[in-house]
Amino acid sequence: MKQKHIEHIDDLMVNAFVDGQLDAVHCESMIAAMEASAETRERVYLMRRAKDLIKVGFESAETPSATGPAPRQGLFGRRYSVGLAASLLMASIGFGSGMLGYYVSKQLSHPAPTGALAAAHTPSTDHVILHVSESDPKQFSAALRYVEHFLDSNQAPGSQIEVIANSGGLDLMRADKSPFKAQVVAMMQHHSNVHFIACANGIRNLRKLGIEPKIIGDIDTDKTAIDHIINRLQAGWTYVKVDDIPEI
Amino acid sequence: MGKKDYCATLSLKSRIAESRTRLYRVALAWCGDEMLADDLAQETMTNGITNIKQLRDETRLFAWLYSILNNNWRLHLRRKKCHDELDDQMPGEDDEPLGHCHEIEIVTRVRRAVATLPAQQRQVISLVDLEEFSYCDVAEILDIPIGTVMSRLHRARKNLLARLENPAVEPQTGREHIRIVK
Fold first, then answer.
1. CB proximity B157 to A under 8 Å
2. What is the ipTM for the molecules in this complex?
3. pLDDT tens for each residue of B59-79
4. Which of A1, A114, A166, B98 is the most buried (most CB within 10 A)?
5. How far apart are alpha carbons A164 and A223 in whole angstroms?
6. How far apart (Å, rounded) are the C-alpha atoms in residues B158 and A43?
7. Is B46 in contact with A205 (Cβ distance < 8 A)?
8. Do B101 and B111 meet the contact criterion of CB atoms below 8 Å apart?
9. How far is CA B174 from CA A75, A228, B87, B134, B148, in A?
10. pTM for the whole structure
11. Strand order across the beta sheet in which A124-132 lies
12. What residue in B sits closest to A95 (Cα-Cα)?
């Protein structure tokens, strides 16, 4: 019976053994086969080696932004790990998705979660980062309406709002494509506390596709939208995703 | 949304956010391009957070996330108008996916070898060996039969070792078997 199992060990079974995918009966057969045959042992060794090599090759890989320069600002005076920083982002997104746009302060009365999430700042309603990621005129319009509303309701000195665009959202800030170019330019000219930021990563991706986007003058660029958002969240800003705004 | 649901959703979103490096590593194994891998990982996180309500079983969070990553990768290939079979899609030397890397030699060699594997094999080997998903999970993530997972995995490992031994060796795609069947 034992010999019968040994004769039927194929390559797929060897891999399944290496990956711990065999049931107890087949596992025992494999072990018996390895005891009986140097050739089987060699086959198992090679597949294990391949498995280990993949780990060696990729386990040390860090995201490009994680190995980049330290954030330009942050209340904590040090850089958080990507995981924690992202947790902070998600904490705010969690708040943001619950509160939807204008109802920021109301929903912030939720009890703070424990763990990493509890480390998040209480977001400030007079410092808002508004995120646009889709090429959708309705979303662009909603984003600009949101900015106008913010300016109307936040007259205190020091209040700021940033509109950050990546992916399709970059179209809002493209001089050659934005249906709201004049409005964006006017906002920047008349309000020193409104900033528009284009994701440099998104611009690079467009260039890869052979598109040279003309970004509206005076609009800043930052490395990646997500890094910029995380930096702002570390500084206590409120994150609002444009498609969370109720009017859309 | 009740307080309990609210906290559960927040926790899931936090777990998604913390998965960025894991997603990135698998995406890097698939595409061989650091910046593209980061884009794919970020897009996957965004999709996951946006569509968190579609996740019915929280214990399947990572399988679900990797199925989103797979969709994003396929979408990217389609956008590049790569109408060829995925098996034919290999990161080109002209993309210089790893040329600017200053990794230790073995890491560089492994990544180069993986980059030459057919895309479908890269997907399976990275999910099994890096993320340690079960064969059933990989079948679900990639929406392929479990037998296909097993055969692609075996060919991937065999090709990887052959490429490391001799970089000039052409990887097997599996179609050779079709030719020899009567």
1. yes
2. 0.74
3. 899 999 999 999 999 888 887
4. A166
5. 11
6. 10
7. no
8. yes
9. 55, 44, 9, 22, 10
10. 0.54
11. A220-222, A194-199, A160-165, A124-132, A237-241
12. B10
